[in-house]
Amino acid sequence: MADIRILLAEDDNNLGSLLKEYLVIKGYKADLYPNGNRAYKGFLKEHYNLCLLDVMMPEKDGFTLAKEIRQINSDIPIIFLTAKSLKQDVLEGFSIGADDYITKPFSMEELLFRIEAILRRTEQLQNKTQDIYQLGKYTFDTKKQTLAIDQKMQKLTTKEAELLKLLCTNHNKVLERNFALRTIWFDDNYFNARSMDVYITKLRKYLKEDPSIEIINVHGKGFKLIY
Predict the structure, then answer these.
(1) Which backbone phi and psi does 99 adopt, to 5 degrees?
(2) How far apart are CA 201 and CA 199, in angstroms?
(3) Contacts with 227 (C-beta within 8 Å, 6 or more apart), sequence order
């Protein structure tokens, strides 16, 4: 974590100093900026791996800052820190491209968990993914969206294939539910979550002919593909 640098934009000096100190203790490098303008200038000078942006800041608010950062780097993870919890604010944050949104007051442990989860996702997305996966006796072709065993071939829908590919790239690790929903459905609302559960059930059915393969539920987190 020594080379992970975090941009922290927070106009509350007490909270900002506390957050910076906590992140440094946890092994991160962190630069604190008291407003959006100074944070933007800092972003232009330094290489950052993640941005923590307060929404309500003087001179330039967090949403505006995030839009400017996105014009320069479309991939850098952004977490909004805010006292606001109105639905339209949350939607605006995600429409800009936020990776997460945490409402004050929050625990330092929760913030750290979210930072670590997002950094893991970023690393996973940056890793080169393959086109063909061997799952026990099955062969999964991500390009053709097919799952074959012996002489039988199952044609997968696009979402089935996308979900199985995410499970494969994270095999023997937890695929976080919210990450899968935002990656495939672009929204982690209740209805999309129920839809994903249906797709998981279908994938289990397709894979049932090899008992060495399992998709297990990890309570409160997501799913894990084991083979």
Answers:
(1) -90, -25
(2) 5
(3) 135, 136, 171, 172, 210, 212, 213, 214
What average pLDDT does this structure show over 90-98?
75
* Domains recognised in the chain with CATH numbers: 5-126 (3.40.50.2300), 132-226 (1.10.10.10)
At 96, the amino acid letter reads: I
| Whether the predicted model's global pTM rises above the 0.70 cut | no
Structure tokens at 95: 């429409």
Q: Please say whether the dihedral angle defined by the alpha carbons of residues 194, 196, 197 and 202, taken in this order, is positive or negative.
A: positive
CA dist 163 and 159 (Å) reads: 6
- What are 32-71's pLDDT values in tens digits? 999 999 999 999 988 899 999 998 898 899 999 999 998 8
11-38 pLDDT, tens digit per residue, is 999 999 999 999 999 999 999 999 999 9
